[in-house]
Amino acid sequence: KVAKTNTAQKGVATAHALLGVFDKPLRQLFESAGFATLATLQYMEWHARQSSPAIAQTTNATFATIATRSHDELCSTLEKTFIGSLDCPAIHGKRHVDDILASHQGFEQNNLSLWFTILAENKPAGVLLMNRLPNEDVLELAYLGILPEMRRRGLAKNALTHAVNQAVKRGCDKIILAVDIANTPAISLYKKVHFLETANRMAMFCLLH
User: What is the model's pTM?
Assistant: First the structure.
C-alpha cells in the first residue's frame, strides 16, 4: 500500500501488476491493496526461421508512421479501436488516452519508428504499436487495434504481416505479445501467422485517482 501511495503521488493514474495464474496468496495480497483482476493474459511469440522472407499483403492497407500523422488523429483512432474489443474490456474507459500511449511505449529509448497508423483508402482504420526491446533483437507488439467498422476485412492479418516484415527488415528474430486469453479470435489469428503460446499471467490493475 505504501508503494501504491508513492506511485499515486507521482501523478500516475493507474497501477498494474502481472502475477502467476496459480499464485493465489499474492493475488489476495494485491486485492487487499485495492487491485482488481483485469484479465488472464496469453503470452505468444513469433520466431524467425532461417532467412525468413517478407510476406505479401492481401489488402491494400498502408502503414504510416505516427511522425507523418497528427497526435490527435492517433489518439482518436486508438480510442475508437477499444469499442467492442475483446482485449481486456474491464479497463476500457478508465484511463486517459495519453496514459495508454505512455504505457504502450514501454522504454524511454524507443523512438516510435515502429508505431503506425493503419490506413485503408488513405483513411485511419487502426493502429499498430511495436517497440524494439533494448539490447535485444526482439520486437514487442504492444498493441494492435482496428476500428469497429473496418473489422473482418483482413486488416488485422495484414497488420501482423507488416509486423513480421518489420522484424525481418530490422534483423529481429523474435516478436513477443500478450493478449487477453478470452480474445479467442485474436489468438486464432496470431496462430495463423505462426505465433506460438508460451505462458499465462494474471493482469491486475488499480485506479490511483
Answer: 0.85
- DSSP symbols for 99-162: HHHHHHH-STT--STTEEEEEETTEEEEEEEEEEPTTSSEEEEEEEEE-GGGTTSSHHHHHHHH
Q: How far is CA 22 from CA 19, 32, 132, 201, 204, in A?
A: 8, 17, 30, 9, 14
Q: Which residue's entry shows cell 505468444? A: 44
CA atoms within 13 A on the CB side of 184: 0
Q: One-letter amino acid identity for 99?
A: D
Question: Residue 6's pLDDT band (boundaries 50, 70, 90)?
Answer: very low
CA distances from 100 to 15, 42, 60, 95 (A): 12, 20, 28, 7
Sequence-distant (≥ 6) Cβ neighbours of residue 140 within 8 angstroms: 106, 130, 131, 132, 133, 175, 176, 177
